[in-house]
Design brief:
about 80 residues, alpha+beta, two-stranded parallel ribbon
């Protein structure tokens, strides 16, 4: 939870102009700004946090996919880029 709050505070203090463009080390290609957020929630709190995080990321130009872990197909992990 403390990691979320720290990130939340740092994101709320940054404008989209302050968000750095990520570049790959080989060839200087721009890395995709796609983010997948997986959550597990019994009470709905984690889903709410995931939706808030997604909203902030989308406001900074990211393409965000949100999914419950129970709905996310494990095979999709193989297709995801992890950095």
């Amino acid at each position: 939870m403390s990691g979320y709050l720290t990130a939340s505070l740092s994101v709320s203090n940054t404008s989209s102009a302050d968000v750095p463009v990520l570049e790959a080390q080989s060839g200087g290609k721009t890395i995709s700004k796609e983010v997948t957020i997986l959550y597990g929630s019994q009470t709905g709190n984690a889903q709410g946090l995931a939706e808030k995080a997604a909203s902030k990321l989308e406001g900074n130009g990211f393409q965000v996919t949100i999914s419950s872990m129970s709905d996310f197909k494990v095979n999709n992990l193989k297709k995801s880029k992890i950095f």
